[in-house]
Amino acid sequence: MTLNAVLDKIDQNLDAATDRLLDLLRIPSISTDPAFAADCQRAADWLVDDLKTIGFNASKRDTTGHPMVMAHADGPGTHVMFYGHYDVQPVDPLELWDRPPFDPALEKTAAGMVIRGRGSSDDKGQLMTFVEACRAWVQVHGSLPIKVSIFFEGEEESGSPSLVPFMQQNAAELTADVALICDTGLFQSAVPAITTQLRGMVTEEFSIKGADRDLHSGMYGGLAGNPIHVLSRLIAGLHDETGRITLDGFYDDVPEVTDEIRSQWQNLGFDHAGYLGDVGLSVPAGETGRTPLEMIWSRPTCEVNGIWGGYTGDGFKTVLPAEAHAKLSFRLVGQQDPKKIHAAFVNYVNSKLPADFSAEFAPSHGDPASQMSIENPAFELARQALSDEWPRPASYIGCGGSIPIAGHFKTVLEMDAMLIGFGRDDDAIHSPNEKYDLESFHKGTRSWARILAALAK
Amino acid sequence: MTLNAVLDKIDQNLDAATDRLLDLLRIPSISTDPAFAADCQRAADWLVDDLKTIGFNASKRDTTGHPMVMAHADGPGTHVMFYGHYDVQPVDPLELWDRPPFDPALEKTAAGMVIRGRGSSDDKGQLMTFVEACRAWVQVHGSLPIKVSIFFEGEEESGSPSLVPFMQQNAAELTADVALICDTGLFQSAVPAITTQLRGMVTEEFSIKGADRDLHSGMYGGLAGNPIHVLSRLIAGLHDETGRITLDGFYDDVPEVTDEIRSQWQNLGFDHAGYLGDVGLSVPAGETGRTPLEMIWSRPTCEVNGIWGGYTGDGFKTVLPAEAHAKLSFRLVGQQDPKKIHAAFVNYVNSKLPADFSAEFAPSHGDPASQMSIENPAFELARQALSDEWPRPASYIGCGGSIPIAGHFKTVLEMDAMLIGFGRDDDAIHSPNEKYDLESFHKGTRSWARILAALAK
Questions:
Q1: Are residues B384 and B362 in the same domain?
Q2: Tens of pLDDT, residues A179-216
Q3: Which residues contact B418 (CB under 8 A, 6 or more apart)?
Q4: Which of A54, A253, B111, B170 is the most exposed place for a label (fewest CB within 10 A)?
Q5: Which residues on chain A are in Cβ contact (under 8 Å) with B295?
Q6: Range of A386's domain?
Q7: Which residues in chain B are contacts of A295 at CB distance < 8 A?
Q8: What is the domain count for chain B?
C-alpha cells in the first residue's frame, strides 16, 4: 500500500520533523515590526531551502513588503495550491511568557506533548504539516501523487498588503484545481473539519452631527437635540425584537443551510453552553428560532464595535456634544453584496435623522461571504481522508469570521479553497505561551498525506 | 432727591471706578492653578482694603483653599448679603488673546466702549458694580440706606470646595433678609432680569457589562449580546416619542409655571430661532407642546453627556466589547428630589437588562432646583428699580443651568437670592478676549444704587 508506507515514514520522521519546525520557530519573523524585516527574509529563505530538498522548484519572490515563497512540484492529475504564512504575531507582553517566545521547545503537559513557542500553531507548525507530508511522499515514492504548488505569505499578521496585487500579477502561476489552506483548527479541539463557509464583512464608521459646537446642557438642554441620543436610537433600531436586522432588503440574499449541512452541524454536538460559559455568558442572544451554530456561521449580523461621543474623561462635564460616533460591522453570508448592504445602511441612517442632524460616513470596506462549492469532489475525498485519520468523522463546518485568503482565492483566482487545520482552542495564538499539540503536528501531517493520496484517485 | 444725587455721583465717578476695576483686573487671581495662589491672596487683600475705604468692616478669612472676603456696614431696615467671586478662569489659549489678559484696557468697539481683560465680566467687573454703588451712597450720604454685608469667594472657578463648609461655620454672620448675587447677565443682552428659578441636577455614570472579556465578533457575533446595543436601547428608551422622560414618577414633583411668570416670559419675546441659529440649529427638539423657554427653564431634562465603549481608535477592530459606558445628567425643576430621580434611574436600567447583562453605577451627585419665593417684597422692589434704570422693563426669568451659590444660600442658610447681573451673551467669559461693556459697568452700578434705595422703602 503506497499510503501506508508514507504514513509509516511520517511516524519515523516525527523527531526530525519536530526539530525542523523548532528550527523555523527560532526565526523571529514578526511582520508588523520593521525591526524584524531581515528575519522575515530569513524565514522565507529557510522555507525555500527546505522545499528544494524535497524536490520543489522553490523561490522567494519580492514584494513591496515581506517576500512570498512559491514552490512547484509536478505530479499527475489534480493540481492543488497549498497556502500558509510564515510570519508571526508580536510577542508582547513578554513577561507573561514562561519561556522566551523564540526559544521553542517540546514540553510535556497534562494533556500531552506540546511544541511551545511563537508561531508554533499560527502558522508555522500548521504549514509544516503539509511540507512534512510532501517530504514523506517524496522519500517513499520519489515523487508526489498529484501536482502540488505551495504559496507562503509573510504578511498575514499585518493585513496582507501585498497579497492581492501579487495574486493578480501571478494569476496563472497561482491557479490550480483547488486551494488548500492550513490556518484553522479542529472543531472544539476534537472534530476534524473542512470549513466550507466563511462570513463576509462590511465595516462602517459614521458620525452624527447636530449643533456646530458643543453646547452647555444648562443653556440648551431640553431645547437642542443630542447626537448621542440620535445615535443611540439609530443603533437601537437596527434590530427588531426577534433579533433580525431591520435594513431594507438585508435578508434578500441570505440562503438557508442545506439539509445535508444542517445534519452534519447537528451531529457536531456543539456545546454552546460551554462556549458561552467560557466567556461568562449563558444565553444565546441572537435571532429567535436559530440554533447557536446558525447564529455564528450562517446568519448575518450587525454589531457596533465602538462608540464614542461627548465627555468621557474623569468627573463630569454637562455638555451636549456636537457629534457622536460609532464603528459598526456587518457579518455577511450567502450572496449578500457588501455594496448593497452599505447602501441600505446609509439609507437607513439618513431616513431616520431628525431635523438639524446630519450623518457623515467614512469609506466603507467590504468583502462578501465565501461559500465553497462542495460539489467539487475534492471536498468529499478530503473529508473521507480526514475521517480515516481521526477518531471522529470529519465534518463540514462554518466559520463566523473572515479568512481573507479564502475569499481572495475565490474572487481573484476563481478557486474554491478547502480550509483544513489542526489547531486547538487552547493554542493561545496571538497570546503569550502559544503552543501546538504534538498530536496536531503528527496527525496533521498524516492527514495531509492521506488527502494527497485521496486526491490522486 | 437722595437717589438722584447718588446716581449723579456714580456718573461723575465713572472714570475713577473704571480705573479701580482695571487695577483689580491686573491681579491674575486664577484659582485653579496653584501657581497663582499668592495672586488670589492679593486680590482678596485689594478688596478688603477697598471696602475699608468705604467704611465697611472688612476682613479676609482663611479657608483650606483661597480666602473669603467678608464685609459688613450697618444701616437701617432690610439686611442684604451680596455675593461675588474675585477668582478668574485660566487664560489658555493665550495666543488667541488680542492683548495680554491681565493687562486690561478700555477699548472702543463698534458696539461701544468695553473693558477688555480676564475677569472683566466674570466676575470682577460685576462685583465692582455693587461696590461702586455702595461707594457712591456713602460718598453722598455718609452711610448706606440699608444694612449691607458683602461675601466674596475666591474658588468659584474651581468648584468652590471651601464654600459650603465656610457657610456652615459662619451661618449666623452670613444670614440676612435676602441674598444678592451678581454673576448673571441681561436677558438676550438687553432685558434687565432677576433669575428666580434655576434647574437642579443629578449626574449618573454607569457601565453595562456583558461577557467577562472582549469577544471577537467573528467567533461570537450573532450569538453573544453586545453591551453597546444594550446601552443604546436603554438610552433610546429614556424618552418617549413626545420627548417626555419615561422614568417612573419622574414628573411627580414638576410644577407648571404660574400665569404671572408665563406672561412675563411671553413678553420677553425670546428669539429662539436666533438662539438656536447661533449654534447651527433651527428646530426646538424638546417636549412636544412646550415653549422654548419652558424647555430650558422650567422643564426637567435627561441628557447623555458622554458615551464610550469598544474600539474607538484608528482603523477597525471587530470586537464585541465586554463593557459600554455613559455619563448622563438630569436637570431638575420644582421639587424633584435628586435621590428619588437617581433611584428611578437605577430601577429603569436594572429592569431593562437582558439576561447575562449587569449594570454598575458610580456614585450619583445631585442638587435640587432652586425656586425663589417672589412673594418676598424685595423681588418686586428690585424689579421696579431695574425697570427704572434700563430702557426695557425688568423681568423674572429662569436659568437652565445651576448656579450652586444660589442653592447653597437656600439650603444652608434658608435665604432666597436675587440673581441680578449685567453681562452680555458676547462677553466671552471663560474664553479669550473676555470683555465687559462699559455700559454694563456703569448702568449696573446705577442699578444697584437704585435697588439699595428701593429696599430702604
A1: no
A2: 999 999 999 999 999 999 999 999 999 999 999 999 98
A3: B178, B179, B180, B181, B194, B372, B378, B379, B382
A4: B111
A5: 222-223
A6: 2-198+369-455
A7: 222-223
A8: 2
